[in-house]
Structure formats: C-alpha cells, structure tokens
Design a protein that fits this description.
single chain, 104 residues, mainly alpha, globular
Length: 104
C-alpha cells in the first residue's frame, strides 16, 4: 500500500503551523491520515501531494483536530469542500471522456 501522507506533507504541515519539534510527529501523521480519509469521503479521492486544494483542506482539518475544534471544520469549510468536490468530479468526467475517446 502506498503511503499517502509523505514526509514532505508532514514537513509542510509542520512549517505552516510553526511546529519545530518532532515529538508529536506520530500524532500529526495519524491526524493527517484521518483528515485525508474524511476529505476523500466527502469530496472524492485525490492525491494531496499533487492537488493543492485537497492538501489545503487536509491541513486545515488537521489543524482543527489538533486544536480540539473539529466540530467547527465542516461549517467553516463547507464552501471549499463543495468547490473541491465539484472540481474532482469535472476531472473524473474529463478522464472518463479521454479514456472513451482512446478506445474508439
């Protein structure tokens, strides 16, 4: 299984949140994984290493988790999640059309 939360994503998250120590890395990685899965379940599957909008949502949800404020995330980011889910659907349909065009 490919690990979706890369060391680079962890480093980027820690830099954005001004976390310079590594004592919480395991907890942060776990929160990033859970946030990724939560965003995927609401918006669709994506790669946070290549999709900046998806990574942003994962980072923000993780920040809310680490600050014990998760109950506010959905309300505060509902527009961004809707936009992202629509973007992913457009990309999915475009990929399907390309695949269909290649088979004819």
């Amino acid at each position: 299984m490919v690990e979706i939360i890369t060391p680079e994503l962890l480093t980027e998250f820690k830099a954005r949140n001004r976390i310079s120590h590594s004592s919480e890395d395991e907890a942060i990685i776990k929160a990033l994984r859970k946030s990724y899965l939560a965003i995927c379940s609401k918006c669709g599957i994506f790669n946070p290493s290549t999709d900046e909008q998806g990574a942003e949502l994962v980072f923000e949800r993780t920040r809310y988790v680490l600050n014990d404020a998760l109950e506010y995330f959905d309300r505060n980011f509902s527009h961004e999640m809707l936009d992202f889910s629509l973007e992913l659907e457009v990309k999915r349909r475009e990929a399907e059309e390309e695949t269909a065009d290649e088979t004819f």
